[in-house]
Each structure stands twice: as structure tokens, then as C-alpha cells.
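Case study 2.
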Amino acid sequence: MQKWEYLTTPLMIHNTTAILNNFGAQGWELVQIMSGPEGGLVAYFKRPQA
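Prediction:
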């Protein structure tokens, strides 16, 4: 059975593309973007565990 690791990170509106591309290059898959509890956006990522 596949095991996953997860990551959450805030997104800076002015640098969203660079942030997403950086995590994608590290093997993270974007799952969802939501409003954070204190405003702003939070990105949720997953990738297979090694």
C-alpha cells in the first residue's frame, strides 16, 4: 500500500507561481489551496514516501 507524506505552507500572493513550481520540482503534488485560519492562503501538498 502506498504511504504518503504531507506538507502545508502559506502562499505569498505576489510569489505564488515560484512557490508552487519549487515544491513541484521537489516531487510535491498540490492537493488543495484554502484560506488560512488567520487570512491568506495555505497550500496542501502530498508526495509518496521514499
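Residues 4-48 form one domain.
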